[in-house]
Amino acid sequence: MNTQISLGVSDKGLPKAREFKPSDWGELSDWLNTLGAPMTVAPIDASQLSQCVVQATEVGRLVMTQTMYGAAARIDISGSCGSPTVATTNISGHSTPKMKGQIPVMNVPGQSYVFDLSKCDHHAEVSKDSTQVHLIFSPKLLDEIALAWFGEVPDRSTWKAKTSFGSSDASWYAGLQYVMRLIEERPSPLNARTVRHIEETLSVNLLENWAKQSGVDLNAEGHRIVPQVVRLAEDYITSHADEAPTLAQIAQAANASVRSLTMNFKKFRGSTLGQFLREQRLLAAKNALLAADQEQTVCQIARSLNYTHLGEFAKIYRERFGERPSETLKRSGAPKSFPQTH
């Protein structure tokens, strides 16, 4: 059995983290509390002096800590309404989380477990050589990501308040490795796009693993409600089609990264974001041509919709509607004034 695994970063632990070496166990608990982790850590052997080393780094609304205990210890966390969700991964040694109604099962390096402190307390024992990475997620962050990716905020009242998941060859662990490398390689401070990407990567991965352990498939048809980011993007494109918005502008309006918006659009609409934008712009052009007054020309209408290459516009318009823009304009009663394209 492996006694230690690696997250693929330097031997110094978490990348770009501040380090703390408490002089006693009470000082350790106090420091962890300042990070939003309401933990009490005490040695199994009361005479054992603190040899802990704790590192912490914050990425957006995520808090990451790595704790090297240096002594067999007991962890107690009191949960309450509004408390965060914590995902813990064993790097070395072992831990034994106490799961309500379950026989305690030892977690070895690479295994993880999640506990929702808004619904339960948490208790665990760790070995002397134990090192753990804790990711602290606020309820607001998880709800926001769930709504953006799955179209709804899941009712987690039926989910397991505490459950083990993953292994060193599972998607959760691979995601942790990826994020740690990303933090280490990118210049400080991380830009907003990178922070958002990390929040989404870890939150979506956690939600999917947690839901699976609770018997819920967030990707099943019953859960395939169109995400809010897709609806926001569609609304923005429809109302701003005449402005020829860029993908970056659309993503900003949907409060999402271009990458996540593109993935969601393809997944839930079966077409690309660019295809939808092109369709809405052509529909806007057709409506404008049909509503044109006697003084307007095809050139004027095309330019008002930010079509700069008029020949290309005429070509794609004819491919889409089976007639030239000038023919549509003629049906509106306005004069035809656009070069014929054959």
UniProtKB/TrEMBL annotation:
Swiss-Prot/TrEMBL keywords: DNA-binding, Transcription, Transcription regulation
An MF annotation (GO) of this entry: sequence-specific DNA binding
InterPro entries, alphabetized: Homeodomain-like_sf, HTH_AraC, PchR_regulatory_protein
Keyword Ligase: no
Domain HTH araC/xylS-type intervals: 231-331
Alphabetical list of SMART domains matching this protein: HTH_ARAC
UniProt superkingdom: Bacteria
Keyword DNA-binding carried by entry: yes
Protein name: AraC-like DNA-binding protein
Species name: Yoonia ponticola
